Each structure stands twice: as C-alpha cells, then as structure tokens.
C-alpha cells in the first residue's frame, strides 16, 4: 500500500464506526514522516485518531478511540495492504476512578 490518505482514513472510520469523518484532519506535530500519516478528529465524547505504524507483521493502520468521559480507550489495528482487521493487536484500556 502506498501512503494512507485522508480519503482512505475517512472511509475506514465510516466503515468501522458508521459516522461521518468530514472533520478528520492531519494532526499538527504528528506528521513528520510522510510515509506514516496521522489524522484525528472529535465526535461527541469520542476522540478519534487514525495513523500508520510498523509492526512485525508489516505496516498497520491503527484506529484509536479515546473516550472523553475518562473511561478508557480502544485501539484497533488493520493490515495496511487489505484494511482487514487484525484483532490479535486490539488493545482495550479502562481507567479506574
């Protein structure tokens, strides 16, 4: 896969979350390497980041969901070449009061 574009990021958010990603934009300060773009947006109480990472299995797309109510976050990963989910990499964190 070539560089992960804003259009592809918006389509993945729409596919996985069922919400519009029209507000998605490049995250200032996180886009130093053009081969690993980083995008973010807010939707209600949800902070969404989508970015490219390198893992043992190759290049991956991370969809990070942070809950602004302070309950935790979820990171889901997708293979960059097919955009198939890689559930073995999913991370869920909850914070205690």
Structure description:
This protein has 97 residues and is mainly beta. The chain is built from one helix and six strands. The chain has a six-stranded antiparallel sheet with strand order 1-2-3-4-5-6, with helices on one face. The longest helix is centred in the first third of the chain and has 12 residues, at 6-17. The termini are far apart. The mean pLDDT is 88.
Overview in brief:
With 97 residues, the chain is mainly β. It is 12% helix and 41% strand. The protein has one helix spanning 6-17; strands spanning 25-26, 38-43, 46-55, 58-67, 72-79, 91-94.
Strand content: 35-45%
Termini separation comes to 42 Å
Please identify the oligomeric state.
single chain
Low-confidence stretches: none
Radius of gyration, in angstroms, nearest whole number: 13 Å
Tell me the overall shape.
Answer: globular
The description of the largest β-sheet is: 6 strands, antiparallel
Report the total helices. 1
Briefly note the structural class of the backbone.
mainly beta
Characteristics:
mainly beta, 97 residues, 41% strand, 6-stranded antiparallel β-sheet, 6 strands
Itemize the secondary structure elements and their pairings:
Layout: H1 6-17, E1 25-26, E2 38-43, E3 46-55, E4 58-67, E5 72-79, E6 91-94
Antiparallel strand pairs: 1-2, 2-3, 3-4, 4-5, 5-6
